[in-house]
Task: structure prediction
Amino acid sequence: EQHFAHHSALPSGDHFGDEGAANHSRFCTEYGKPGVEFFVFGKYAFDNSKPKPQVFPARQTYEASQAISRLHGLNNDAVVFAQQAPETIDAGVFHNDVIAVANAQVLFCHEQAFLNQPAVYAEIKAKFPQLEIIEVPANKVSVEDAVSTYLFNSQLISHPEKGMILIAPSECLANNAVNSYLQELVADTNAINDVQMFQVQQSMRNGGGPACLRQRIVLSASEQAAANQSVFMTEDRYTELCAWVNKHYRDHLTAQDLADPQLLLESRTALDELTTLLDLGAVYPFQI
Result:
C-alpha cells in the first residue's frame, strides 16, 4: 500500500468503454517526474450531437477517460483529453496506438490522428511546453498504410546513448511508402535517431504490433523491490513460461472447439498453473 494502489474497474457497458494504455500516453521530461497525461477517446457516450464514427464502433469514450482521470486523482492542469478523428476510426484505427505513439517529450503521430488536431497540439503545449511533435504527412503515409503496417503500433524507447529508437514491425520494411518515410525520419533532425524492425507476424495476425508486446511501467528501485518478483522476466522465468505454453496451448483451434467443454477445462488448468507460476494468487472467479 505504500507504493501501489489498485482501482476498481469502470462499470461494464458501452457508455464507459475503456481499453486502457492503447488510448493513453504520458509526456514528461524524465521518467519518474511529473508530466502530462494524454487521454484519447473515440466518442462522447452521453452526447449524440458530437462527432463519432459511422462504420466502426468507438471503443473508448470521453466519459470513461474522464472517470479514469478523476478516480486516479489527476490534476486537471496536467491532463489533456483529445478525440480521435472519426473518419480515421472508420478507416480501421480502432485504438489511438494504431495512429500515434509517445515517449517522454515526443509525440509521433499521423496528420489525421485527432479531431481538431491543431487545437490538440496547442493544449498539450500549453500544459507541457517541451513537447516535440513529429507528424507524418498523409501525402507520404496514408492512413491505410499506417493501419496495414502498424507503423504507429511501435515501441518508442529512450536509449541512454543513441537517443530515441522506434521499434517497428517488419511490415514497415515491405511497404515502399512507409519504408521511404522512415528513412527520411532517421536522416532528418528530430528526437528519433534510429528505427529497428522485427518480425512479429504472429502478434500482427492477432491484431497487435510491437506496442502490444510490452507492459510499460516505470518503477523506482524501491517500487521494483516491493513488487511481486515473480512477474519480472528472467532467463529462468522465460524457460518456465515457454514450457507452460508448450504444455497447454493447442496447436490449432476450430470454431467447433469452442463448444467443447474440454477446452474450458484445459483453459482453466492452464490459467491455474500460470497464476501459480507468477505467484498471483486467486485472480479468476473459478479459482475462488
Remarks:
- The chain is about 30% helix and 15% strand.
- The beta strands are 24-27, 36-41, 79-83, 100-103, 106-110, 132-136, 155-159, 163-169, 192-198.
- The two ends are 23 Å apart (CA to CA).
